[in-house]
Every structure is written in structure tokens, then in C-alpha cells.
Amino acid sequence: MRPSLLVCSLLIASAMPARADWTVTSQRDRLTDKDRKTASLPAARPDHGVTARLVISCLEDRLVGGLILAIETSAVFTRGRMGLRFRVDEQEPEARFMPVNAHGTGMEQWADPDDLRGARRLRVELQPARSPNLFYDFDLTGVDKALAAVPCTRTRS
């Protein structure tokens, strides 16, 4: 391969977005002896040195069971509520003001995971109380397979 062709190939490859890399994990629930699966996807890049990932899991409950979408980060936020804005593909952005999760690292149940079916891109902005806003971009390629990999019965309406 000629050096100029190699350089052009490398420049084109580096300009292309990274392919989504969903990871499905299984963990044994010691109380019920059932396997619980989760699917996770890292953001394309960190913001202000803070990494993030989407996590899809199942809440098993007779009244409000179903898939849960969470965003987890490598930062610990102030307890309480935090702003979050998100946009799926080219839909209108939506805003939420939700409690920070119990670990202080993110938020849960801010969107219905089923709304991601068939989507290609998710952009999320976290608005912590005492630090700069954090922006994350997720390539949702393979989201339908990831959702199917987390078995869950929806009992909430």
C-alpha cells in the first residue's frame, strides 16, 4: 500500500464514529437463584474526565415491573435532585429533574428503555449542582438486541 493511501485510510477511519459496544452481563441473585441480566453501553468519550455508561436492567415487581434505563458515571454527585436533558435521534430534547441514585453516581428511570427501540443516537446532558454540566453521546447501534437480551415482564402501564 502506498504511504499516501495509508494516511488517507487512517484519516477516514479516525473520522468515523466508533461502533457501539453493548455488553450483556449476567449475575446470579443469591436470594432467588435467578440469573439477572443487564446491558450496558459506554459513552463515546468522557466529559471533564468523567466517564458514563447507559445501563438497561429489569425491575421485577408485581405492580411496577419493567425495563429500567439508567446512566452511571465515574463521578459522585451531591445527594438530592439533578437536572438531566436528553435527545433520541432528531426528536425534540426532553428535560427531567430527578433524584440522584443511591450510589450518587447517576440517575435511573428518566426515560422508558422501549423508547430507544430502533434509535441510532442518544445524547444526554447531566446538570450537577456543584460542578460543570456533563455531555455524553451514545451510539445506540444494536440497542434492539441489547433490549432483547434483558428478559423482563412489564407489569406497569
What topology does this entry show?
Layout: H1 3-15, E1 23-28, E2 35-42, E3 52-59, E4 66-73, E5 81-88, E6 94-99, E7 106-108, E8 121-127, E9 134-139, H2 143-148
Antiparallel strand pairs: 1-2, 2-3, 3-4, 4-7, 5-6, 5-8, 8-9
List the main descriptive attributes of the protein structure presented here.
157 residues, mainly beta, disordered N terminus, 4-stranded antiparallel sheet
Concise description?
With 157 residues, the chain is mainly β.
Q: Mind explaining what this structure looks like?
A:
With 157 residues, this protein is mainly beta. The protein has two helices and nine strands; from the N terminus they run αβββββββββα. It has a five-stranded antiparallel β-sheet with strand order 1-2-3-4-7, with no helix packed on it. Strands 6-5-8-9 form a four-stranded antiparallel β-sheet, with no helix packed on it. The longest helix has 13 residues, at 3-15.
Structural class: mainly beta
- Approximate shape: globular
Determine the fraction of residues in helical runs and give it as a percent range. 10-25%
Give the distance, in angstroms, between the N- and C-terminal Cα atoms: 59 Å
Low-confidence parts, pLDDT < 50 over ≥5 residues? 3-19
Spatial order of the strands forming the largest sheet:
1-2-3-4-7
Provide a count of the helices.
2
Order of helices and strands: HEEEEEEEEEH
Radius of gyration, whole Å = 18 Å
Strand element count: 9
Strand residue percentage: 35-45%
- What is the arithmetic mean of pLDDT? 87
| Largest beta-sheet characterization | 5 strands, antiparallel
Q: What's the oligomerization state?
A: single chain
